[in-house]
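Aim 2, interim progress. The first record below pairs a target sequence with its structure tokens.
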Amino acid sequence: MIRSMTGYGKKDGTSQKAGVTVEIRSVNHRFLEVAVRLPRSLAQLEDQVRKTVQQRCLRGRVDVSVSVHSAGGSLKTVQIDQALAKQYHTALKKLQKTLGLRGAVDVSTLAGFRDILSISDEPVDAGQLTKTVLRVLGGALTDLEKMRRREGEALAKDLALHLDAIREAKSLVAEKAPVLAKHAFERMKGRIETLLQAELPDPARLQQELAVFADRSDISEELVRLESHMLQFDQQLHSKESVGKTLEFLLQEMGREVNTIGSKANDADIAALVVRMKAELEKLREQVQNVE
């Protein structure tokens, strides 16, 4: 079954004290375009993440966002410069005594000196974190694929409905096709007789020219090709491969045949059916833009 290019996937995982979240969003695009956002510490994974996505997505604009956060612990450590704190304490006590100041030199006082306390990132096993990110990425891609398949099933049903509408209109055109050439022959013959208002100069030659003209109004070949394109279109809707571009090409060819039918068949009823088929083709084009 065909897949949509629209989807969303999200997965969480843990690696030591680090929590990993991967979010993936995809929308329609003519080709495959992958955008990756990673923490600075994981920047070296960008190419690997992009290749992983390219192996499982064939078309669409895919945005991948990876974040690392605390998971049941802290990714930061607090360090205290005890030697510096003692120097501050000694200096403050001396100043207090010299100036005769009241109050206590306690922890809250020392905490105001920012150079005593420092916060740094807790070391994390880079190899283990990389494995976790790629594992969580795989899970998010699986969720994305599930949604794209569900959207694809809905798309396939809608496309089939529009295709059936075209097939119904085409069947009505086919019913009228056998008499088009005859009507064209009689219509043109009547015009010529009216214009000449006399005996035809060369009946045999005129009959031949009228037959050629009438043959140009024959749309049987266009109807056969249109049916062939519709059959291929229907088959592609059940393919597991990326068929979006193929469907776009088939729609282009179907439109070509419908236009030719409209231009060759000088008939009001067929013209109305051609308008109906063109409207359905336009609806198909809009939907096919989102097929992978």
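The second target in this work package is listed in the same format:
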Amino acid sequence: MSPSTTLDAVADILSRAQRILFVTGAGISVDSGLPTYRGIGGLYHDRLTEEGLTIEEALSGEMMATRPEIAWRYIAQIEASCRGAKPNAAHRLIAALEQEKALVCVLTQNVDGLHRAAGSRNVIEIHGTVHRLHCMSCGQGRRVEDYAGLSIPPECPRCGGILRPDVVLFGEALPELAIERLESVLSQGMDAVVSIGTTSVFPYIAGPVLWAAREGTPTVEINPGDTQVSQFVDHRLRMCAAEALPELWWRMHPADPAEDRGW
């Protein structure tokens, strides 16, 4: 099947679908200038931190509890790599589809907040976001646009305790509310599940795609490379997200192509 034929088939699926789950990973934010995992990464691929730690050790829940200055050093570097990034065409077009469909839900591993910045409202940030902080002592929370001006590690203005970002660090459990939201969405049934820019190595990221495949729900993968779910999906687009989504939008909206909207 030619790339054009596959794009047509996927566009037809998305046009007819009223309930769509998008599962996204770091690859969707590449065209916003962010590195892919290890990417958090790309930052620490196959090398140790200056303390001689793996990035999994430095960014663990245990390190945050015992040596927060170390964990924060690398969290701040991750945030700095995201700072100033804007949603790209893929983020914006997913948000636009939310306005047309009965339900569009985004399950994202990304902590960059770009889906929300693009206008998506129904977003499950399974790994949290760098834009929310809370005090490990008193629980006081606050939202921040970026970490500019923060001391590292930052102190709570209420009690003087250490703040931490609302992200899932290595060795920590996933947020229960996020898991419950995902289960609720899936229990209502989907018309299509689309995996974008993720290697799907985590079971809870591959799971919705495999569930859909078992249920006979149309499945799509948008990723230049092979992943853990590639062999199970109905359609594969070996494209980057910011290239594929405008092509699909144009096929779904021939009178209103993405380019006309500046996407």
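The two ends are 27 Å apart (CA to CA). This observation will shape the mutagenesis plan for the next reporting period.
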